[in-house]
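Re: [help] complex structure
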Amino acid sequence: MNEFELIQHFFTRSACAQGGENISLGIGDDCALLQIPAGYSCAVSTDTLVSGIHFPEHAPAFLLGQRALAVAVSDLAAMGAEPIGFTLALTLPHIALDWLQGFSEGLSAMAQHCGIGLVGGDTTRGPLAITVTVLGAVPQQQALLRSTAQVGDLLCVSGPLGAAAAALPVVLGEIDTQVIAAHTLEQLLAAYWTPQPQLQLGQYLRGKAHAALDISDGLLADCGHIAQASNVCLQIQQAQVPVADAARSLLGDAAALEAALSGGDDYQLAFTIAAQKLAPLQCKFPAVRAIGQVCAGSGVQVLDPQGRLVAQQRSGYQHFN
Amino acid sequence: MNEFELIQHFFTRSACAQGGENISLGIGDDCALLQIPAGYSCAVSTDTLVSGIHFPEHAPAFLLGQRALAVAVSDLAAMGAEPIGFTLALTLPHIALDWLQGFSEGLSAMAQHCGIGLVGGDTTRGPLAITVTVLGAVPQQQALLRSTAQVGDLLCVSGPLGAAAAALPVVLGEIDTQVIAAHTLEQLLAAYWTPQPQLQLGQYLRGKAHAALDISDGLLADCGHIAQASNVCLQIQQAQVPVADAARSLLGDAAALEAALSGGDDYQLAFTIAAQKLAPLQCKFPAVRAIGQVCAGSGVQVLDPQGRLVAQQRSGYQHFN
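Output below.
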């Protein structure tokens, strides 16, 4: 089976390549063609996952397919965009039919969940790496930016944090899973392998939130991005940060809080919004929590219940450090 | 220097990140935002180059930057699309400042040449690989497809073929360059490292050509793609195929013809067009040559001057073979 047949078999015929109403030409030509509705901008983002860096070398193919797409679609959610299509650049050390089958099924499951279609890509030989580029549409002037937080806003997150970071030693096989309660184990693995892009919330926040992003590098690091882009200070009330139950069960309260503050891979949204908009928002999205506020100044501050600054040891995962 | 500073320094401030009028938000947020003009489709294509597979491990960074973008933009040319923006997923084994400087300068030079702006990307650690996703705009219903060749059309190519394939042993350091005439060497290296996306021709062919693609896998293989997608037979008159002078000088006539037919990496366009449109086309694009015709049937046939079928040994480079 040569490269072209390979791509055709596993991806052109996969469920994720069936396309939506805004895909006028899918896989198979020099380019795909997407329709961006009148009055909308085209939103685009690229993410790469490399074996041994972003996932274990022997990660299950189905889970990897789900996760690779979810991580990328999360960037559309963070802009308030509606997904349309994605391209997949897949670098493989060799052809393994079982692996390709599992990977394309995982990709398809997440694509259907998010309402996005595979429109093209490239398959090359080399060390396993997955680059997904997602495209979506967002009404002009309504995209959720990092740079428009306003002093006086509440700082909110879309749901509990820390489970994906807590799951990492489990995913890496570094701890004995038999000592973990089945329910906790299930939540940990789901948090790591099947992050849920917050698409509905992102679209709801258009015209309401002042700034937003998705939490991929860790709450503190990502809040730092908003603070820097908006030229403000974000104050976080440590006691208000929602910590995932599974992280608490595995790690205990202190380490779970640390995972919620500094661990990555949660793919919840962090956003700033005027205080009077919180109550109606929480009626529709009850997992949303206000965790702090936007102040004049710069950087990110974590405060204890007495309002004292809490020293932070690290501010999120970064490559090349 | 951490990942974020790295990306910011070399790419956000690079000449290629200055953006054009259709880029309303560039690098630095969760997504970039592009404006697709009313009545246009968004064209998107992804290409990956892997070290040791698509380019030599010690390839000069500047040339690699130029080539990685040119190869991707060529897909926009093949659709008749106008370039807008691109994302770059760069996987690096380590930070080498000189390399990044050279690469970003090569990328910027080609970006300015093509009128396209860097709008986002991802930098990760791992074996050197470059994935470029290009985005452009093409008037609805006017994109040049592979699937719409018509029986009776002329088959044309945009210029001479074979120089990039002939250059390969030079690029790989497999032959002594001192025995090659300086002018020939210059042409060979330019053909390989600085392919010229045929953007003006592609846009001119909208509403005129019936089918088109760019020649990346080799003339025969790529004509095979048109034949299959359009359900026709493409007949090539071997004597009409324009062979690059530099390929002839290095390889002699017979091997140069083989390079023109089966070598890849030329990034000229192959297209089919009604015969009466050839003369006005050649006035504007004098390098265009008619090399055959579209017939009922399937596959690709190469004919000698007596109209006899020429046997072909191979039909283009493919990975995993």
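The first strand of chain B starts at residue 23 and ends at 25.
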